[in-house]
Amino acid sequence: MPQVNGRFVPDMKSPRTPDNEEPAAERACDFRPVDKGFTEEMALAEAERCMDCKKPFCVEGCPVNINIPKFIEQIREKNYGGALDTIREESMLPAICGRVCPQENQCEGKCIRGKKSEPVAIGQLERFVGDQPELASKPAMKPKNGKKVAVVGSGPSGITCAGELARNGFDVTVFEAFFTGGGVLVYGIPEFRLPKAVVKREIDGLEEMGVKFEYNSVVGNIATAEELFDEGFDALYIATGAGLPKFLNVPGENLPNVFFANEYLTRVNLMKANKFPEYDTPTKHGKNVVVFGGGNVAMDAVRTAKRLGAERAIIAYRRTEDEMPARRAELHHAKAEGVEVMPLVSPLEFIAGEDGTVCAVKVQKMELGEPDESGRRRPVPIEGAIEEIPCDVAISAIGTNANPFASKIGGKMELNKWGYIIADEETGQTTDPRIWAGGDIVTGAATVILAMGAGKKAAASITKSLLGE
Ligand code: FAD
Ligand code: SF4
Fold first, then answer.
1. Ligand nearest to the CA of 76
2. Which domains does the chain show, CATH number per domain?
3. Which end is more exposed in the chain, N or C (fewer Cβ atoms within 10 Å of the end residue's Cβ)?
4. Is residue 464 a contact partner of residue 142, using CB atoms and an 8 Å limit?
5. Per residue in 66-83, pLDDT tens?
């Protein structure tokens, strides 16, 4: 490690270490991970680029304020276990966040090296140590305190809260509607971006800590909040997500082979429709696929369609590429894999062919007008500019709404007019003092790291409330 007077001297000449990607043409044919992650040599070279800033803006950019310069220094010292412990002080899921966080808008977006050249590849370094969980210290477990907590939903928010509570000595049961744990991490984000084995490792870790998982258990159906309290639970953490699809509200939306992205992705990711008939769930393998949307969900859907054999796979978005909310890496990967980006279009109508299934979509061409309340320029229709795009599969990925089961769970907690649970921003406590909530069911569709952060805050608040600590 280069040093002057005992102080580390960063490598100011090296460019950012490129991602370790599989060749685009090969990876687009199957579900293998697109990015193989840094080797040790790559991680060490990248860690040398960090300037160990006195005022590390990267930490401010991280939603959970991980001590980034400290863990990068530990990588430079080859103290990978220590680096993992540093990250785990704030984030339970480094192998997952390293892969899926929108780093360009968070830590890397604030990295001082990014002002003059390229930012340090913080996400890749996080993933590098996150993928070596065997090196981390065993979490200190407090003695059992005799209190029981039910966590509803096993997405990143639920599992983070469950892990923190188990460490604090609580008896924790996670109720999950699906037959497996992980929420969007397993049913939404495809294997080529986030291998299921990485998520399973986290769930297995929780089970080793004594957390119980009750699968195929929809709270609101199997039991209400009051019934769970009657069974002896002292508190509830609700993290049911926001998976209800938003409708496009255009004619033909109900035609066969017009999908909502979450359904399309769940069929493939969870039910393995790509391996039909080996697995029971079929899906349409379209040759001409159009996906409406510009976020991560749209990217995952279009790249999945490509892997199912689409010859033409289009992302159709009502603004331009610059305004797309997807992670930049996903857009870059999608384009390298042959996905076509069609900016400034909005769907008007899905058209049925002779067999009654979708054969085309009529789109309205748009242009950008004045900025709207989000600060982005508003798309405005260009009069008379209408086009027809042939397609045999169309997928809508324009966003989601609150999971409607929140209202069936009961208790005295209040929902807002859109069906999201009202909870205190700092503690996650709802208007029912026995119930906490967090993640997408409180904020609306957001990010893994924010959902995880909410679970952590709620666990601290539940601990304080039930134990007075
Ligand atoms: P979820 O992950 O939605 O988990 C909720 C869980 O609750 C589910 O398992 C559900 O089955 C269960 N559940 C619901 N109702 C009940 C009930 N009544 N009883 C029991 N269980 C119930 N974010 C990023 O940061 N980076 C990305 O790259 C990214 N890509 C994404 C790609 C896709 C396709 C999608 C859909 C989202 C993506 N996101 C991404 C967003 C991110 O995944 C979510 O913000 C995050 O998963 C929210 O976590 P959560 O724990 O609140 O809810
Ligand atoms: Fe290192 Fe960038 Fe953070 Fe500075 S801002 S400490 S260079 S990662």
1. 2
2. 3-135 (1.10.1060.10), 148-243+402-467 (3.50.50.60), 245-399 (3.50.50.60)
3. C
4. no
5. 999 999 999 999 999 999
